Amino acid sequence: MRLNQKSLERDQLKVDELMKPYQGKLVSELKRGFLQNYSQDTKASFAVLARRMFGISDNHLSLDSSEKPLILKTIRVTGNDQPAENMSFFEVRFDEWLEADSWHETMLYQYFYDTQFVFQVFQQFPSGLRVPDNQMTFKRALVWQMPDYDLEHGLKKLWLDTCHLIKTNQIRIVPKKQKTGKIIYRNNLPKSKDNTVCHLRPGGKNGKDVIMLPSGQEIARQRLWLNKQYVNDVIL
Q: 79-104, pLDDT tens digit by residue?
């Protein structure tokens, strides 16, 4: 179910109210308050911190003002206002993509059509220089849902292009030897340069975590990612 603009604005006001006490605080300060018993100091600790700030145990946030739960995601922004990395979502189910009778019946479309997000933004200060994670600052939390235009163009284009490559047996998987001697496998699935919204990238446990395509080819398990430039345009 899509939220109208008034509903989004109402949810944003509620989130602003909840997060106002923490805006501008260093991650190290927030961790002292929320992660005293959390021993790991990794990138994953940002997700744990974000949940603790909202007082929730998973990534589903319920607001009195909201018609449905919102999904919590964290974003780390460099000092020059560029996202530190692309944003990862779920594993791609190629069989489901190929079996769908239409774009609007795909899980990909339905997920982003129905889902609202809260982006917890942590930024590196000052002067565009990279600083240790603990010296990053909590900037804001943004309520967002993907606009219809991006659903019907960028996201749909990814689905169409991927299905076309698979159905026409045009997937190319090429081994590439790195300087260390390790062999990695490149493919021609849509990259960030091919789409303004999203792309596909490996997201398995390791290089041996593969799946079988309908063509019989083995390929690394893939995940959907929002492009970092797209995320940048959303949050700034």
A: 776 777 899 999 999 999 999 999 99
User: What is the dihedral angle through the alpha carbons of 53, 84, 82, 3, rounded to the nearest 10 degrees?
Assistant: -50
Q: In the beta sheet, which residues pair with residue 137?
A: 26, 123
Which phi and psi angles does 120 have, rounded to 5°?
-90, 115
Q: How far is CA 70 from CA 42, 105, 174, in A?
A: 24, 22, 40
Residue that is written with structure tokens 């995320």 in the block:
231
Q: What's the pLDDT tens digit per position in 173-225?
A: 998 888 888 888 899 999 999 999 999 999 877 767 899 988 788 999 999 99
Contact between 104 and 143 (Cβ < 8 Å): no
Evaluate if pTM is beyond 0.85. Answer: yes
Q: How many residues does the chain have?
A: 236
Those residues with Cβ within 8 angstroms of residue 76's Cβ, 6 or more apart along the chain or in another chain: 43, 46, 83, 84, 85, 122, 123, 124, 133, 136
Residue type, 100: A
Residue 41: pLDDT over 70: no
Query: Is the omega angle on the peptide bond into residue 202 within 30 degrees of 0, that is, cis?
Result: no
In this structure, of 34-38, 97-101, 144-148, the range with the lowest mean pLDDT score is: 34-38
| Cβ 83 vs Cβ 228: under 8 Å | yes
Nearest to 96 by CA among 111, 86, 117: 111
Query: Which residues is 122 bridged to in the sheet?
Result: 76, 138
Question: What is the distance between the alpha carbons of residues 49 and 26, in angstroms, rounded to a whole number?
Answer: 12
Q: How far apart are CA 70 and CA 59, in angstroms?
A: 8
